[in-house]
Amino acid sequence: MAVERTLSIIKPDATRRNLTGKIIAKLEDAGLKVIAQKRIRLTREKAEAFYEVHAERPFYSDLCDFMTSGPVVVQALEGENAVAKNREVMGATNPEDAAVGTIRKEFAENVEANSVHGSDSPENAAIEIAFFFDDDEIVG
Ligand code: ADP
Ligand code: MG
């Protein structure tokens, strides 16, 4: 297995409920290391661009409303098999389908306000990390 990087976002439903630390603890307990992090408020333009791949989905507009409704914490994570490892710790998109012990099972409010984002492939991880971070903001 290779050391990989992945992009994580702690979403507005989680920052609103002050769950940032509890979510980071789950990531760290799984062996993922936070190598870049910042708390920001997404602009509508930035949210739309980030979720461009979902532009044709019926929930796209609502999703962009939600992602701009409060602060998010964007993170680059590093570790063995980081992309799949993070997806495992996050749990299924819909918290009703998420395994016990996962972030979404424990914290998500519903399928939209599901507390975290994680890249779905190493290729997308590289694109998504570059979307939020300059090279000199990442310290591995
Ligand atoms: P994941 O975040 O697990 O990779 P997707 O990439 O399919 O899931 O969707 C991106 C985000 O869009 C989800 O995390 C969730 O916030 C939202 N979303 C996905 N499916 C739905 C849905 N059926 N209704 C409302 N929002 C959804
Ligand atoms: Mg996705």
Care to describe what's here?
This protein has helices at residues 12-16, 20-29, 44-50, 60-67, 82-90, 103-107, 122-132, and strands at 3-10, 33-40, 72-80, 116-118. With 140 residues, the chain is of the alpha+beta class. Strands 2-3-1-4 form a four-stranded antiparallel sheet. The mean pLDDT is 98. The protein binds adenosine-5'-diphosphate and magnesium ion. Adenosine-5'-diphosphate is lined by residues 54, 59, 63, 93, 111-112, 114, 117, 120.
Judged by helices, strands and strand pairing, the structural class is alpha+beta
- Cα radius of gyration in angstroms: 14 Å
Q: What are the segments in which pLDDT stays under 50 over at least 5 consecutive residues?
A: none
The set of bound ligands, ions and cofactors reads: adenosine-5'-diphosphate, magnesium ion
> In this structure, how is the largest beta sheet organized?
4 strands, antiparallel
Overall average residue pLDDT: 98
Number of strands: 4
Descriptive terms for the model:
globular; 39% helix; 140 residues; 20% strand; binds adenosine-5'-diphosphate; binds magnesium ion; alpha+beta; four-stranded antiparallel sheet
